[in-house]
């Protein structure tokens, strides 16, 4: 497995704007870090569990139809490239505060299953960075663990931003630079995948 590529992929996707980060930042703005910890842990643990479950769910199909793994890897790399472009070109806007009580642990964990970005990342990561072999389950577990270890600090960063760096994040020029940087990192994480696909399809 390309561990460095996975780590870069996890960081670049988990630190960019999305439903989870928008909600956790809004929670930080309204309730502070301490009251938002249940929400934070629900995201981190819930999404990692989702990645593992999604990876195991499609393992049987890959065993029966190896070409499906190649097809999904191509589609996943293409869509993640599109996602990088969307991140870099997204219009900059201010984040609005929310009202009400902060998410509980279970609410945040359950939200992952209706979060479009979570599905894209879970499926994209498992089909892009795995190889069909006897260690497939271990590969999926490692990817889920990578999201837990390296994705959690990214989520905490947004919570901290919401609690203490609201002024900086609302400056359009800063947000634009941030988005372009993360989109560049995302494309960089896909380089080994494009190289592998080139070797399989062209060479």
Characterization of the model:
The structure is a single chain. The protein has about 200 residues and is mainly alpha-helical. The chain has helices at about 5-15, 20-35, 35-55, 60-65, 65-90, 105-110, 115-130, 135-165, 165-170, 170-190, 190-200. The chain has one domain (about 5-200). It has 11 helices and no strands. The protein is globular, with a radius of gyration of 17 Å. Mean pLDDT is about 85; it is low at about 95-100.
Summarize this structure as a short list of keywords or feature phrases.
single chain, 203 residues, mainly alpha
Which secondary structure elements does this structure contain, and how are they paired or packed?
Blueprint: H1 3-14, H2 19-35, H3 37-57, H4 59-64, H5 66-89, H6 105-111, H7 116-128, H8 136-164, H9 166-169, H10 172-189, H11 191-201
Q: What letter string, H or E per element, gives the SSE order? A: HHHHHHHHHHH
Q: Which parts are unreliable, with pLDDT below 50 for 5 consecutive residues or more?
A: 94-99
- The portion of residues assigned to helices is over 70%
Q: How does the overall form come out from the CA principal axes?
A: globular
- What is the count of distinct domains? 1
Structural class: mainly alpha
Largest sheet: none
Secondary structure: number of strands: 0
The DSSP helix count reads 11
Strand content bin: under 5%
Distance between the termini: 21 Å
Radius of gyration: 17 Å
* Arithmetic mean of pLDDT: 83
């Amino acid at each position: 497995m390309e561990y460095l590529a996975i780590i870069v992929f996890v960081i670049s996707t988990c630190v960019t704007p999305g439903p989870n980060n928008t909600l956790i930042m809004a929670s930080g703005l309204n309730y502070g870090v301490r009251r938002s910890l249940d929400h934070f842990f629900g995201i981190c643990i819930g999404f990692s569990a989702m990645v593992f479950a999604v990876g195991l769910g499609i393992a049987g199909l890959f065993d029966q139809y190896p070409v499906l793994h190649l097809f999904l890897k191509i589609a996943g790399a293409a869509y993640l490239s599109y996602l990088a472009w969307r991140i870099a070109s997204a219009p900059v806007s201010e984040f609005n505060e929310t009202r009400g009580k902060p998410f509980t642990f279970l609410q945040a964990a359950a939200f992952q299953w209706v979060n479009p970005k979570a599905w894209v990342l879970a499926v994209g990561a498992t089909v892009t960075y795995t190889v069909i072999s006897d260690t497939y389950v271990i590969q999926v577990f490692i990817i889920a663990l990578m999201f837990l270890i390296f994705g959690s600090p990214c989520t905490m960063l947004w919570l901290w931003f919401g609690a203490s760096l609201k002024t900086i994040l609302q400056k359009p020029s800063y947000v634009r630079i941030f988005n372009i940087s993360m989109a560049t990192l995302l494309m960089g994480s896909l380089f080994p995948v494009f190289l592998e696909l080139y070797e399989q399809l062209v060479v």
